[in-house]
Amino acid sequence: MPAPSPTASRLLVLAVAFISAGCEPGSGIHAQSPADARARAAYRNKLDAGNWLSPAEAARMIRERPDLQLVCVANIEDYRAGHLPDSMLIPVLALRMVIDDNTQSRIYPAINRGRTVSKDRPMLIYCWWNACKCPTVPTYSELARAILREKGFRNVYSVEGGMRSWIAASQPYEKGEPAPSVTRPTTRPAD
Question: Tens digit of pLDDT for each residue in 90-129?
Fold first, then answer.
């Protein structure tokens, strides 16, 4: 078995850090405090500085940019708890694989409905946002941004504070997931 890539090893270490630091999304809806937001912003990649949007800015972008791709990078449980209407679901831990293998349209078919992400269109990604106070532990959105940048995506935006801030700002969202579409079998005409 080949050794994991350095990037894969870093992601594994970060995932373990999330769990051991108690930084899983957890319950409760609250926006991050301004002090927490400033501390987290200090540790972000400088290439991303201008691409973090408040919930109001993100809602305006959604209204004004019909070509905007909405992608939840959280897990399915968090997606079910609340997500932006008409968004795709590509969990951050599968993001690199689905882009590399071009399998985006096959994961969560009822949610993604055959859609794939495109480097040619702007993208708004979001997660539920971890509830911990440790700004050096990246959120799923921050991890996804690093992967997308590595894969050549340049026009990527994120919701500052994730779904927690989105809901706290009374922006529209949905819960659950669409029911899988079932096509009724057709009968063959008699010969």
Answer: 999 999 988 888 776 678 888 998 888 999 999 999 998 7
Range of the domain at 87: 25-168
Residue 180 lies in a domain: no
Q: What is the pTM of this model?
A: 0.73
Domain count across the chain: 1
pLDDT of residue 107: 83
pLDDT band at residue 25 under the 50/70/90 scheme:
very low
Within a domain: residue 20? no
Assign residue 51 the CATH number of its domain: 3.40.250.10
**Are the CB atoms for 9 and 16 separated by under 8 Å?**
no
- As to burial, measured by CB atoms within 10 angstroms (0-12 exposed, 13-18 middle, 19+ buried), residue 50 is exposed
Query: Following CA atoms 135, 139, 145, 148 in sequence, which dihedral angle do they give, to the nearest 10 degrees?
Result: 140
For residues 22 and 28, give the distance between their C-alpha atoms in angstroms, rounded to a whole number: 15
